[in-house]
Amino acid sequence: MPSGREQYLQALASLSDLTRTQAERVASLLAKQGEVQTAQVNRVAEDLVRRTQKNREILTRLVQREVKRQLGVLGMASRDEVARVAAEYLAPAKAATVLLGDAGVVADSLATLDVVELTSA
To answer: Consecutive sets of 10 residues in the chain, 121 residues long: mean pLDDT of each?
Structure first.
């Protein structure tokens, strides 16, 4: 069975969530082995939980940055770039709708009327 110190180091290096109960168990083992004082068990457990969470967050940011970099190397657009291009592409259609407003509906009606008049003549 690994010593309390080894379990502490394994917990720090772990990528999985460390529960408060697991951290308390490791801290208690350290106290039994004389590595920490009994009065420090709660503080050591809290520190262990906080440090493992911080390590996971750091690793997550590192992986996200690398994935983003690799997608850029492959020439793939980011979500923000796609949104920007879509907005630029749709802007003229939105502008035309705003400018024409009801006139667009009238123009469509007139075009239909002309077609009807030509076919009935």
So the answer is: 76 77 89 90 92 90 93 87 87 70 54 46 45
Are residues 91 and 59 both part of a single domain?
no
Number of domains in the chain: 2
Q: Which residues contact 49 (CB under 8 A, 6 or more apart)?
A: 18, 19, 20, 23
Q: What pLDDT does residue 64 have?
A: 94
Residue 53 sits in the same domain as residue 1:
yes
Is the pTM value of this prediction over 0.70? no
Which domain range does residue 8 map to?
Answer: 1-76
